Amino acid sequence: MTRRTVRIAMNGVTGRMGYRQHLLRSILAIREQGGLDLGGGEALWPEPVLVGRREHALREIAERHGLTEWSTDLDAVLADDTIDIYFDAQVTSARVEAIKKAIAAGKHIYTEKPTAADLDGALELARLARDAGIRHGVVQDKIFLPGLLKLKRLIDGGFFGEILSVRGEFGYWVFEGDWQNAQRPSWNYRAEDGGGITVDMFPHWEYVLHELFGRVTTVQAHITTHIAQRWDEQGKPYAASADDAAYGIFELDGGAVAQINSSWTVRVNRDELVEFQVDGTHGSAVAGLRRCRVQHRSATPKPVWNPDLPATESFRDQWQEVPDNAQFDNGFKAQWELFLRHVALGEAYHWDLLAGARGVQLAELGLRSSAEGRRFDVPELSL
Length: 383
Known about the structure:
By secondary structure, this protein is α/β, with parallel strands linked by helices. Helix content is 31%, strand content 25%. The chain is built from nine helices and 18 strands. The strands form three sheets. The chain has a nine-stranded mixed sheet. Helix 4 (95-104) packs parallel to helix 5 (119-132). The radius of gyration is 22 Å and the shape is globular. The chain starts with a strand and ends in a 6-residue tail after the last strand.
């Protein structure tokens, strides 16, 4: 098999997501399997060039994985004509200017979300990429996860009949950092650094709802900061200026209603860290990251409300597990492979910077809804 090399500048790989999901479990995993099979006896070989601000961290990652190229000079990397793709997993506040530079240098763009701090910035990136004629994509990993792939299979098979509602629960307790180290970086809780659960999670909910159930047409949200003080990586207290919980109601094209709670201040009493319950006229499903369970109308029990007697049935046991029926790869890797095929072969790909802008739009409108106590329409976006 002949090998075609694609060189990828990966900015932000010293961070949790950039390293674990994008470098280790996606790009390096593709290399471990011998590259990406393009068909016709050709394999695409990704060659990462690590980029970041911390020289020692870049060197340590490169040495750990036998990589030879890394740099703290983004401008120099982008000036290298052999670089084909620029990938960004930096903090949101640094993303827009770096992507602008990469577009100006003629690189294809693949980026984490949110793509910008506001809708104007996100749309500007989409327009610049369109005008430059480059290929561009935004990470939308949740729809590539086993639980939601099974849910999509049910939708496509007509299992639900008419879909009436979607209820989502996401989150876990993030330690404040005083008596136990926080498991998320402190910038997540500072609005001035681009933090906040709304800008983090509403872009996810936009594409999950859009892809599976229909475009979001209205949003109403209550957004708050439950824990006002946290402690940073050096053990110093700081004011949490960003929101840590967001409660949203979304109307969808077609009439279904979605309610999704997102919180870093909730203790988990569910099977997975995120779960969606979908109720339809013919059946219901509960899908998480990996599992999906269903209850068809023909097997729906008839519970009776009686608070004077203890429940005699286990409601959870009345649901049926949806089988895998397929081999599921890492969701981030699966989308990377689709984007690389898009770059190499021009195959169709619609998770682009305009799709990313829709996520930023929903977060922006959610924040406005909470601040003004209003429900907002969500206009369709175009360039």
